Amino acid sequence: MAARRLQFFKTLKDTFKTVVSSYNRHVAQYGPKGQHPYLTRGDESGVGCPLLGKQCPLKADASPAYDLDLGYPDGDVYVVSKVQKPQAEDAGAMALAEAKRLVAEKTANARADTLKKHYKNIKLVAEANGVCERLDSEVDKLETEQAAWFKRRYTHDLQGTANATTVKVELADFLTFVNELRLATTMFCDRSGMNLTGKRDPANDKPDSRSVVECSLAISFCDAVVDCFGGIIYRLERLKIQEKRLQSTIPAIQALVTELRERSVATMATFPPHKIAMRKLKLRADVEKEVKEQINAETGGGGGAAATPATPADTPARPPNPMLAGIRGGRTGRGRGGRGAPSGNDDGPPPARPDFLSSIRGRGGRGGAPPPGDDGPPPAGGRGGDFLSAIRGRGRGGGDLLSAIRGRGGGGRGDLFAAIANRKQAE
C-alpha cells in the first residue's frame, strides 16, 4: 500500500513539473499575461501565440476564475429539490385519469391481439405497437397545441394585449410545430414503404406491410394534420403575413400526408372487413368551440355580477309568505290582499290565511270577530256566525237544525212533515 502511494505521488509530482515547465516555456516565448499577443488570420509576421482557445496555457489557466470574488453565504445553504406530485388531488380528476388509463389499456390489448395475428413476429409486433402509440400521441399533440393557440389568441383579444410581439411568438410556435410534424410524417411514410431518398419516385416504393390498425391510425393522423395546416394558413391570411418558411414547408408535408393517406386506404382495402375501434377525431372547429366555451365560463364565473355584493334594497327583508304565519293566523282575512283588508301599519308579517280555530269560529273576515264594544252573541247565520251557530241556526231567525227541518226557517211554508202529508191528500 505504501509503495503504491509513493508511486502515485511521484507520478503527480512529475506531471506538475511537466505542466509548469511547458507553461514557463510558452510565457518565455510569447510573453506573460497582458503582453501576450495572438496571431490573426493573414498575419505573416510570425510574432504572437498561434494557439487557439484553451490550447494556450494562459487562457486555460484563466478558465476557472480563481481571482473572482463571488462571495459566500452568511448562513447554511442546502440543496432544495421541488417534488411535484404526478397526479391531481381532486377525486374527480383522479377518477377521470383512471378511466382514461383503463380505456388505453383495453385499446392496447385489442391492438396487440390484432398485431399478433397480422405480423406473427414478436419484434415486428413490438415495432408496430410503438408506432401506433406514436400515432396516438401525435394526434393528441395536435389537439393540445391547437387548443393552446386558440386560448392564447382569444385571451389576448379579450385583454386587448395583441401586438406584433404576440404575433411573432405565434409564428415561431407554428414553425416549431410544423418541423416536428415533418419529422413524424417522414417516419410514418417510411413505415408505409415510401422511398423518400433523393427525388420522390413512386416506382422505388416498397410494398406496404402495415396492419389494419396502423393504417386506420395513419388515416386519422393525416386528417388531423391537413386540418391543422388549414388553420395555420387561414391564420396567416388573416394576419396578412408572408412567412416563407411556413409557406414552403407546409405544401411539401401536405403532399406527403396526402400520399400516405392514399396508401393507407389502399392497404386497408386489401384486408377482409374488420371492425376497428376508431378514435373520435377532434377537428379545429371542435377545439375552437371548446376553448371559447371554457374562456366564457371562466370570465363569466369571476365577473362583476358575481363579485358585487348585494345591496340592502336587493335583499328581501322577509320571505313572501312565512310558513308559520298560516298557523299563527296573521291578519284577519283570507290571504294576501284578498278579502281581509290590511291595517294601517303594514310593517308586520305579510297577510296570510287565519289559523284553524279562527276559521271555525269566524269563517273568514265578514264577521268572525265582533266589533269592539259589542257584547251580544255572535251572529248566527250564513257566513257571519261560527261553525256551530251555522249548524244550529242556518239563519238569523231560525233555531237549531231540527227546527230548520221542521219549519224550513221557522215562519215559512210549514214544517216538512206537514208538507208531505198535504201532498198525499192532494193526490
UniProtKB/TrEMBL annotation:
The lineage of its organism: Eukaryota, Sar, Stramenopiles, Oomycota, Saprolegniomycetes. Residues 306-316 have a biased composition (Low complexity). Residues 295-414 are annotated as: Disordered. Residues 369-380 have a biased composition (Pro residues). This is Uncharacterized protein. It comes from the Eukaryota. It comes from Aphanomyces astaci.
